[in-house]
Amino acid sequence: MLYPWQYDDWERIQVLREYWIHALLLYGPTGIGKTNFACELAQSLLCDRPRADACACGGCLACTWFLQRTHPDFRFICPENTPLKVSTDKNSNNYPPIDTAVSANSKKFKSLSKEIKIEQIRELLDFCGISSHRGARRIVILSPAEALNMVAANALLKTLEEPPSGVLFLLVSTDVKRLPLTIVSRCRQWPLAMPNVESALAWLGSKSITDPALTLAEAGGAPLAALTIARDGYAPLKQCILEQLSSGKNCAPFSFCETLQTAPMPLVLGWLQRWVYDLLATQMSGEPRYFLSHRNALKNISQNAAPFRVAQCLKRITQQRAVEQHSLNNRLVFEGLFIHYRGLFRGK
Ligand SMILES: [Zn+2]
Known about the structure:
about 45% helix; about 5% strand; alpha/beta; 3 domains; about 350 residues
């Protein structure tokens, strides 16, 4: 099912139905439901009896196969370490289809590949080389497309340059800049809108979130990211970090960076990036964007740091985020960044 904020995008994309191209690049911020949107689109294009609003019927043979992850004319390609999405709604798509036995917190999960590998693309090319099982369209979703490693991207590129008849590629991306230009140029780019606040808050309210407005702000307006934050087992650790960051010059990186090693790098870098962004926003406009409940602390420490140095710190964190999926020594990275952060502040 589409999320409530996706109906405008859904209506907008229907203009493509008459002239489906062979590759569509759906992009937008993390946590707005891009992959879900791509799956709904795929299911509706495979459906035998689409509804008047162009959504899949949910009950035909094609839909049944799709929902059971067994449709022979559909492939979903993602990195091995993509967490399983489990839906309790029988009409919701259950992609990505990862082995349920592998929990996202297990050691095995952490050792799985973060990349879409050449073997996956080779298998995909075999799929593209045979004819459609049902004599109709075949659909491939790649999510997130920026997880394609260089070799895999080159192999895919050849197929995008000479697209097999009747195959539609749906590439999903949070960060188009990280995709090879050659891939991007072979796709029709399609931005997905940020959800409007009312619809996002109403949806979060239906999930029994304690403080939807604060959580949605922290997630930068992305409802699924807000739900993840609200249900995140690392919330106590985040509170500890924010307290340390609130103390500016007195922040003590060596006392907590060891604990931080247990948390995923993207999660911690995300906290730090949003915090430093808020520090700069407070200096520029007097108001933070993400951590609204820490408004006063941000105002206090923002007076003791030069804005250009805060901007440099933000740039450094952003650069670190670009390589956050690579195997690095988490502790060294965190200590380096927190020491840099502490150095922003004048006085005691
Ligand atoms: Zn159907």
